[in-house]
Amino acid sequence: MAKRIAVLVVVPLVLAVLGFGGQQIMQRSWDGLVAYQTHYAAPLPAGQAGEPLTDQVVIVLQDGLRLDTSTELEAWNELRAQGADLSVRVGQPSLSIPSFTVINTGTYQELSGVVTNWYEGPIPPVDSIYCQAQAAGLTTAMVQEAGGPKLFEPCLDSPIFPEIPKDDRRAADDIILEQSLIALEENPNLLWIHFSGSDWSGHHYGGASEEYRQYACLLYTSDAADE
After folding, report:
1. Is pTM beyond 0.85 here?
2. Highest mean pLDDT (candidates 128-142, 165-179, 207-221)
């Protein structure tokens, strides 16, 4: 009887200790990710620029648009037919803000230190195309929703961060389009435009869902753009 009572007491106690220990390990791992500090972000000498191929570059980010879904969009396929069509990897974790950093700096997450979507403020001292453009005497601009990351704001001549509705992503992307057309009138040398409707639909419906595919096709076809 005493042995049975001892087992009934000891087993729950061991399980409680293991559970607490597992929780602490998980918390430390999570904190290590969120509070990650890169050891590689240090100023480096700038490279030698070549002859410019154009006087203006416009980068349009369609956040959360699956590659296979993009092949169903007429407007995207028209663009593919006019130039190069390349697929790139942005490293892990493949979250939005870390991926933006990779695209604009050329450095992966473990180098830049931007590893989560909770990163705030300017990026640490890693180079970016915006800072390089400014250093060369070129003008830079960005259009994205007000709640988006301000990673490159110190190197932007014309940051445009409009407030957008949270419950109507079609209207939200329409606002971004309107502001982008205004930004283009200023003829900046480097312009980043960030649409987020498909990212919202992926979070809302699931990126593999039929609802997501239909939503993306509704938003980003030439017919929708003409409405």
Report:
1. no
2. 128-142
HSE-CB for 5 with a 13 A CA cutoff: 2
- Residues in the chain, total: 227
∠ CA 166-184-60 to the nearest 5 degrees?
A: 55
Other Cβ atoms less than 10 A from the Cβ of 49: the count is: 9
Q: Residue 227: what pLDDT?
A: 45
Tokens (6 digits) for 103 = 């695209």
Q: Which residues contact 170 (CB under 8 A, 6 or more apart)?
A: 197, 218, 219
- Closest CA relative to residue 171, chosen from 151, 148, 200, 193: 200
Sheet containing strand 158-160, edge to edge, reads 57-62, 190-195, 140-143, 158-160
pLDDT greater than 90 at residue 187: yes
For residues 166-193, one letter each, b for 16 or more C-beta atoms within 10 angstroms of the residue's C-beta and e for the rest, the string is: eeebeebbbbbeebbeebeeeebbbbbb
